[in-house]
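User: Some background: our group keeps a shared notebook of sequences we're curious about, and every so often someone picks one and asks for a predicted structure to add to the entry. Today it's my turn. The entry only has the sequence so far, pasted here. Could you supply the structure so I can complete it?
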Amino acid sequence: MKKAVGLWIDHKKAVIVSDIKGGGEVVTIESNMEKHVRYKEGARPKTAYGAQHSPAEDVQDRKYNEHLNKYYSRIITQIRKADSIFIMGPGEAKHELEKRLIHEELNRRIVGIETVDKMTDRQIAAKVRKYFT
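Assistant: Of course. Here's the predicted structure to add to the notebook entry:
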């Protein structure tokens, strides 16, 4: 039997729905991440020396990216054995996860990516069940 998994993701949490035919098992993974301010190129405030960013910002960006990578690794551990993966979410996190899945050579298992707003766990489970039926 093929294993299908659906997940809703943003930078704060991921809600993973598996065992779809059996009613749906829901697992939530929290990122425990603080809000991160990202600047567009050229939009960063200039320092007293005219530089576009400071070493402290570089350290903060590096820590943020390391934290995101650990978060995505925890999610991939949960969905690695799935034959079909449906990803949804409101922002960039779904595409960042897709890039990680490509890197892990799991991208052929992705059956769909959809932009959706915030949802309750029940709404997520219902949408995943509907997608796979």
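Suggested note for the entry: The chain has one domain: 4-33+55-132. The chain has a mean pLDDT of 86.
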